[in-house]
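Thought: the user wants the 3D structure for the chain below. I'll pass the sequence to the structure tool as-is, report back what it returns, then summarize two notable features.
Action: structure_tool
Action Input:
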Amino acid sequence: MAGFVNDQNDLELDHPHQAPDLPEGDDPITELSKKGYNYLKEGVLEEAQTAFLEMLELEPKNNYALVGLGDVCRKRGEFERATGYYQECLRQHPTNNYALFGLADSYKALGLFHRALDIWEEYLRQDGDNITVLTRVADAYRKVRSFSRSKETYLRVLEKEPGNAYALIGLGHLYYDFKDYREALRSWEKMYARNPEGADIRVLTSLGNCHRKLKSYSDGVPYFEKVLTAHPDNFYALFGLADCYRGMNRSLESLDYWNRILAFDPNNKVILTRAGDALRSLDRYDEAETSYRKALDIEFDLYAVLGLALIHKARAHYEEAIKALQGILRNDANNPRIYQEIAECHLHLKQKDEAVKILAAFQRRGMKNSQINEMMNRLR
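Observation:
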């Protein structure tokens, strides 16, 4: 569950992409071209498409018409169709930058990042200083998990244009993806510093999530609260605040935010389980059990089963707790906490040998855990 929210926050801005420089003159093709790109700019896609198709009737391989039709399809989300128009243009005009850009962007939208990279690299061979394309390249390297090349390209953008929003956001995601939360925080803080009063809510939640990951929970709270000031039902801010208060052992405040989510998303099993955890920590066992069972009615959840087992333990129903915890081990055999909880239940039942046996079973798996080792040493 720790990564549940992560990662709404793939914050990417829409890069500007200008229409090609249109031909001069007052012949029919030129007029249709101007008309088509004006419609495209205004978002009147049906009229734009009609103009570009009329151009192709007059000149079947016209590059302006082919790029325009590709752009129309891309704006409609018809990315496979868009690639066909861009590819046809490039067969006739191999160095057409607008077709290269559109084709690469379409591949990116289709999740074909390696193909997108090939096209953008081709574009950069003609226009190596294009900031928009450089950030696209860096984004694509990030998507294919090439940390060094992505970072190198983002930094190249920032050398050319310090404070570039796309590069700062991309760097933030890159560091976050590779769990370097301090560097991610620095990138997003630079974005925040540019406009603290009007910061994008995704920047705010990204900052809050970095603090969650760094366990600096109290520092994350203000960012999530700022989101809720403008958007009281924002799921990610509510989750972030609830999780921060959970990390600060302030279960009552945490429960309040879990319940606010459940008010509009009552069948979210993850939130039901988290609410159960908060209720259990407040010794409200009946309510916690109800919440866990609601989660399990939706779908199996390992943490809900664990919560129920810990309620059994808290109620001194140790045999029932052991049975439930043993069931969890079948799905999470490397979790040291489960072995420790089972051992504690055996000790409550005065079954020291059984406690030693379950701790030894964990150690035989070849893993080390200081708490398990300390517990074993005490028992021996």
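Final Answer: Structure generated. Residues 233 and 263 are 10 Å apart (CA to CA). Residues 22-126 form a domain with the Serine Threonine Protein Phosphatase 5, Tetratricopeptide repeat fold (CATH 1.25.40.10).
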